[in-house]
Design goal:
This protein is an alpha/beta fold. It has five helices and eight strands. The strands form two sheets. A six-stranded mixed sheet has the order 1-4-5-6-8-7, sandwiched between helices. The chain has one domain.
């Protein structure tokens, strides 16, 4: 009708432009966790192992099979510590039916790699292997949980009745993001800071006060979408 002012529809939240990248994407995850200092801080927070991880290098993310016909394993990120320990860091957004099997396949490839490298013709090799940690950041819940609030779990190979550890060189670590329900105001520990950031960085508009540390400020700087070129 003539003279009637038509108001434009309100802008929905989904139309808002994000300030920071999404760490749950392949690009966002590798861009941030590909920074050595960032990865070291994350690993020492999540693994919480005696002595910590003092140094690391990034390994080849493609491990070939034993033959040309075998499928190769492509990892998100692999770290090798100064002690030779291997750390797989995987992020999985979509639920996968046999993800536990996948964790075993990926670890077995790293075991086989140790078996092959430098062992051919070595008569003194006695099957000693370096430790392997498999860290899995999951945007789904990995099966039924006895404790539905436990979002971080460490799994070892143990005796069924006594729970005595049979082999301490394989550790599976699972971060199940849907089980972490804390809001920003409730985040207190370093672990909670990390999990909240992984889950919610892309929803933030600025750097919260509790993230005003050297490592986290570096992450926020790297994660700014405005500082990226058009291709990225």
């Amino acid at each position: 009708m003539a003279g009637k002012v038509v108001k434009s529809p309100k802008k929905s939240k989904t139309q808002d432009l994000s300030v920071f990248i999404n760490l749950l994407t392949d690009f966002g995850f590798k861009r941030v966790f590909g920074i050595k200092e960032v990865m070291l801080d994350f690993l020492n927070t999540v693994l919480d192992i005696p002595g910590g991880v003092a140094d690391l290098n990034y390994g080849n993310v493609e491990i070939l099979g034993l033959t040309k016909e075998d499928r190769k394993a492509i990892y998100d990120l692999i770290c090798i510590t100064g002690n030779g320990e291997r750390i797989i860091v995987e992020i999985q957004n979509i639920e996968q039916e046999y993800y536990k099997d996948r964790m075993l396949v990926y670890i077995s490839q790293l075991i086989q790699e140790q078996n092959v490298q430098g062992k051919v013709g070595d008569k003194d090799w006695n099957y000693k292997l370096d430790k392997i940690y498999s860290i899995n950041i999951l945007n789904f819940v990995l099966g039924k949980k006895k404790n539905p609030k436990k979002y971080l779990s460490h799994w070892l190979i143990k005796e069924r009745d006594t729970h005595e550890v049979l082999y301490d060189k394989l550790t599976f670590v699972c971060v199940e993001l849907p089980l972490f329900n804390k809001k920003l105001r409730g985040v207190k520990t370093a672990l909670e800071q990390w999990i909240f950031l992984i889950k919610s960085l892309h929803e933030l508009k600025n750097i919260p006060k509790k993230y005003k540390t050297e490592i986290f400020e570096k992450i926020f700087e790297m994660a700014k979408i405005a500082k990226m070129n058009k291709k990225k």
